[in-house]
Design brief:
single chain; 148 residues; alpha+beta; 18% helix
Amino acid sequence: ESIKGEGNVQLNEGVITDRKNPEEEPIAYNLILARFTVGGGKAQVTEGRLESDKFYIDLEGDVGLDRTLDLYGACDVEKSMVRKGFFKKLVSNILPDNDRGYHFHVRIGGSFEQPDVKVKAGRAVTDGLQDTVKDTGNKVEKFFKKVF
C-alpha cells in the first residue's frame, strides 16, 4: 500500500505462452507497451498496448497489487481470424471494421488466476446477432486468458 511511483515497460518481438496449457501454440507479438503509476495498492495503467500480426489491443485501468484486474479498452482482430465461407461474409457485414481489422470492446476483471474477460462487438451485433461472432469473440477471450 505504501509503494508509489511511475514507470514504463516496453517489450519488443517475443511470444506469449499459456502456462496452464504449454502444448498450445505460443502467440508472437511485435510490441507490448505499458505506462503506469503505482499508488494506493494498485498500478493504474494509463496506456497499455499489444501489437501482433493478429491483434492490436489498447487497454487502460487498474491492476491491483493483490493481483486483481479492472482493465478496459479495445481490441482489433485480424480479419482472417473470423469464420470462413458464408459466416465470414455475414460477419464482415455486421462487425465494426477499421484499418486494422474487426473491432471489439474489451473488459477484464477478476484476477490473474481467474480473469473475467468480456468481449463485445457493438450494439448491432449484441442485439440478436451475437452468435455469428461467437468464434471470434472466444478467440479474443482465450488470448486474454493466455496473457493473464
